[in-house]
Amino acid sequence: MSATLRVKVWRGGADGAFREYEVPRRESQTVLDVVTHIQRAIDPTLAYRFACRVGMCGSCAMTVNGAPRWTCRTHVDKVARGDRLEIAPLRNLPLIRDLVADMREFFDKWARAQGQFKGRRTRADDFERITPGSDARKRADAAIECIGCGVCYAACDVVAWNPDYLGPAALNRAWTLANDARDAANPERLRAVAGDRASLACHTHMSCTERCPKALSPTAGIAGLKRAVARAALEGEL
Ligand code: SF4
Ligand code: FES
Fold first, then answer.
1. How much distance in Å is there from the Cα of 21 to the middle of ligand 1?
2. Distances in Å between the alpha carbon of 137 and those of 130, 134, 140, 143?
3. Cα 8–9–11 angle (5° rounding)?
4. What is the pTM assigned to this prediction?
């Protein structure tokens, strides 16, 4: 193993270019460690984003050797090609600068997919509970561990072709709420995810499911939404 890594990093805005850095290679080094080394020891003007460093916050996602990944849990040994790494911002999102993509439209689409929980109870009521271990709980839990990293969105070719498409993460969130027995907004939600800018646009390429670092399957959730939309349409609820 070479003692150093040759790392190409995207610098600037959409019209920027890759710049190459030499970074010492270390045992158990993550891609986020590499970016942090560049920013702290070589070039303090490099912009990037991270918070938790343990795979919980979803803020560190970047394109590593051509594929979107969470960088804090991606070991260099797994992705380096010899001594080479290429690190770029997530695709399918506007670029702010360097490795920082603008996530606003990604989260705006969660709102358009009715990704907010709407309960039936008031502040004066006790919490509504779903029994742990019940089928209802398992259904609601199946896709709930999303950390909002945007990896699936960056991996999705349908988003690349059709920027209005809500994308896998927003639809995965809608599916989670559609399966939450406490949620009261399902009719509006199914209308929000019914069109050809929503669940019907999915071509089942599976890139989101292949790349999701939390091993979720937005593809399965989108298929579930398609079935729920068809059922609601047949029953005259849409
Ligand atoms: S579904 Fe997976 S890849 Fe997509 S935002 Fe959530 S955690 Fe990230
Ligand atoms: S820094 Fe939080 S998920 Fe990577």
1. 30
2. 6, 5, 5, 11
3. 135
4. 0.95
Token duo for residue 233: 């349409």
Read off the amino acid at residue 193.
Answer: V
193: Cα within 13 Å, side-chain hemisphere? 36
3-class SS at 85?
strand
How far does the centroid of ligand 2 lie from the alpha carbon of residue 149, in Å?
A: 8
Cβ(151) – ligand 1 distance below 6 Å = yes
Closest atom of ligand 1 relative to the 70 alpha carbon: 8
Residues with CB under 6 A from ligand 2: 50-53, 55-60, 70, 72
Q: Tens place of pLDDT for every residue, the chain, 238 residues?
A: 779 999 999 999 999 999 999 999 999 999 999 999 999 999 999 999 999 999 999 999 999 999 999 999 999 999 999 999 999 999 999 999 999 999 999 999 999 999 999 999 998 999 899 999 999 999 999 999 999 999 999 999 999 999 999 999 999 999 999 999 999 998 899 999 998 899 999 999 999 999 999 999 999 999 999 999 999 999 988 8
